[in-house]
Design a protein that fits this description.
Strand order of the largest sheet: 1-2
Order of helices and strands: HHEEHHHHHHHEHHEEEHHEEHHHHHH
Radius of gyration: 31 Å
Number of helices: 19
Structural class: mainly alpha
Distance between the termini: 43 Å
Number of strands: 8
Mean pLDDT: 76
Largest sheet: 2 strands, antiparallel
């Protein structure tokens, strides 16, 4: 039972974060990535999109033995469903993130066949607003002297020459746009998650005190195949966990198709990922070096890596055919000094029908490989490329489709109707909530600190003989809390929070005015004191000036913070707080001092309040900077 439960999607953990992609979980990035995914303009011939091989109605594969883009790719197309859980992408693991993997097909001459310069031009012409909102301004790509229409480190001599003639700074700008295209695509691909299938409902039913099922969830043949899968077949040695893959690399010694070059597998992939300028440790990554554990400690010893390919998931496997189901040979053992073929023979009550049921219902690893089809590449050109699965469309490991609304961008062209896009969202693991527990705490602290600082600013105190409003010791903390909110709920929702806090404070002002107008009980005896403190003149000027200063300065703080983390660095969180507060605190102080006390107090006192407040606020800012570490960086990236 424990083994069966471990294979169920009920055990699937939350989606792991991708520290190398700061927009990985932002809805705007996913929306942009979805449009790019179906847009054929991201190809050399305006005919190929990501969906050409990753078709939604085939669980983001293509039901072909080999992928077909501009040419024929001599590998089977891997499913994107649940791929975000894997540390390594592609059959040989040559990429350590989904966003860096998404860049490879775009310039591969057999897939999309274009260049990064071409794709930057498409972004500038058709997706400028969406891109700028996510990543900041684009360079002036209209300058053809600096930015040719086509160019990149590709096999096309003309495009390669154009790229080599560009200045290093211009190449870097285009590389960043190219990387951000990949990050947007990855944000969309992270939404493609497996959904519970009949197998998962069967596992859940085993805990039901009333085992009667009409009709049964699995028939006798399927249960017999399942016994082999978790028993004598030893399939769970590799196909384990809720996604039915260990995401590791194995040499199964299954030969490649005739006419296809031998794939060296992980031994080449390990070298490629180390050299990839878009890897986790590269300059276009948003991760700190210590967050790139997988890349820093990957196994690179050739022993055991030659010929090793990644274990594919068996989720929705009946829809990701063609399969190697015409023979009962499942694995050829490999690795080490001996390569010895092993066969799974089915005898006795486990007859050939049971073996076929195993292939049809739970498809072991032999049935999905990078080299399973025996036909030559010539047979896979147009006219031969519509191979379909021979198995029934209902499968115990298949999940049902969930329709997603069609794309809003009419300009996006698609090889597959956008209305057919499929998202898999497991009910037991819904999409991350807008407000995490940390975000709720930060929002409450932010609004509470603002109200407290506004109220205490009604008193002008003497500190070391200098005039200072007493809200000064609290208010600077709100700037740091705003920065924490920016991390947890994103830029746009932080801007909304600023306006919401202002509305709450305005309501408090109005309520105090109303309370002041209500006749006091003579027994209470403090009506005069209340009116003195919360008079319309004093309360109105000080609190209203404070609210205006808060809104203006914290909106500026938001923009400076966003500029710093998107254009400077994400690796020094204290620096982003210091930079944004260094701009916003003086603005706030000036607006507040003049608005609250100008023409009310002597100007010498006003400027003394300004200077003392400024010094105190910077001191409190420095003391409050550790608060930025209350939340994990980019815990929620929606902006």
């Amino acid at each position: 039972m424990a083994l069966l439960r471990s294979l169920s999607l009920a055990m699937l953990p939350p989606l792991p974060p991708d520290p190398s992609n700061s927009v990985a979980d932002r809805p705007e990035a996913a929306a942009l990535g979805r449009q790019i995914f179906f847009d054929t303009r991201f190809s050399v011939n305006d005919a190929v999109s990501c969906a050409s091989c990753h078709m939604p109605d085939h669980f983001f594969t293509d039901a072909r033995p080999f992928g077909v883009g501009v040419g024929v790719i001599p590998l089977n197309t891997m499913s994107l469903v649940g791929a975000a859980y894997s540390e390594w992408q592609t059959w040989d693991g040559k990429n350590d993130s989904q966003w860096s993997q998404a860049l490879i097909p775009l310039e591969n001459p057999l897939e999309h066949g274009g260049t990064r310069m071409q794709y930057a031009q498409v972004i500038a012409e058709h997706y400028r607003a969406e891109y700028v909102a996510l990543f900041g301004p684009l360079p002036d790509l209209a300058d053809r002297q600096r930015f040719p229409l086509r160019g990149g480190p590709v096999v096309d001599p003309a495009a390669a020459a154009s790229w080599a003639a560009m200045r290093a700074t211009d190449q870097d700008a285009v590389n960043r746009i190219f990387a951000n295209i990949g990050k947007s695509l990855a944000a969309y691909e992270r939404t493609l998650l497996p959904q519970p299938a009949r197998f998962d409902r069967y596992v859940a039913s085993l805990d039901d005190p009333d085992p009667s099922q009409e009709p049964p969830l699995l028939n006798d043949e399927e249960i017999a195949g399942l016994r082999i899968f978790i028993g004598k077949g030893a399939c769970t040695q590799c196909h384990n966990g809720p996604r039915l893959t260990n995401d590791a690399f194995h040499n199964t010694a299954v030969p490649g198709a005739p006419g296809v070059p031998l794939q060296r597998g992980r031994v080449d992939g390990a070298a490629k990922v180390q050299a990839d300028p878009f890897n986790c440790l590269g300059r276009y990554s948003d991760a700190a070096p210590e967050q790139c554990t997988a890349l820093r400690f990957q196994v690179t010893d050739p022993a055991g890596l030659v010929g090793s390919m990644k274990t594919p998931t068996l989720r929705n496997v009946a829809e990701t055919a063609p399969l190697h189901a015409h023979r009962p040979v499942c694995h050829a053992g490999g690795g080490g000094r001996t390569l010895q073929r092993r066969r799974l023979f089915v005898a006795g009550t486990q007859r050939a029908e049971t073996a076929r049921a195993l292939a049809r219902r739970s498809q072991p690893a032999c049935c999905v490989s990078a080299h399973t089809d025996r036909r030559s590449p010539v047979e896979l050109l147009p006219g031969w490329q519509e191979a379909r699965s021979p198995w029934p469309r209902t499968n115990i490991l298949n999940s049902t489709a969930v329709a997603v609304p069609a794309l809003s961008k009419q300009r996006s062209r698609s090889v597959s109707s956008p209305a057919n896009i499929v998202r898999r969202v497991p009910p037991s693991h819904p999409a991350p909530p807008l407000l995490t527990h940390t975000a709720v705490v930060v929002v409450a602290l932010y609004i509470g600190a603002q109200m407290l600082s506004d109220l205490t600013s009604l008193k002008i105190g003497l500190i070391a003989g200098l005039a200072v409003d007493m809200g000064t010791f609290i208010y600077p903390i709100t700037f740091t809390l705003r920065d924490v909110a920016h991390k947890t709920i994103g830029k746009r929702h932080t801007q909304l929070l600023i306006w919401l806090a202002a509305a709450v404070n305005l309501f408090a002002v109005a309520y105090f005015w109303w309370v002041g107008g209500v006749a006091g009980d003579p027994v209470w005896g403090l009506q005069a004191e209340w009116e003195a403190i919360f008079s319309v003149n004093l309360l109105g000027r000080i609190v209203l000036a404070s609210i205006v200063a808060e809104v203006v300065s914290e909106l500026v703080d938001t923009e400076v913070y966003h500029w710093f983390v998107t254009r400077i660095t994400r690796r020094r969180q204290w620096a982003r707080v210091l930079a944004s507060n260094s701009v916003s605190v003086p603005i706030d102080n000036l607006i507040f001092a003049v608005g609250a006390f100008g023409w009310l107090l002597p100007w010498a006192v006003v400027w003394q309040i300004f200077l003392v407040n400024l010094a105190v606020k910077f001191g409190v800012t420095l003391a409050s900077m550790p608060l930025i570490y209350l939340a994990r960086d980019q815990e929620w990236r929606e902006e």
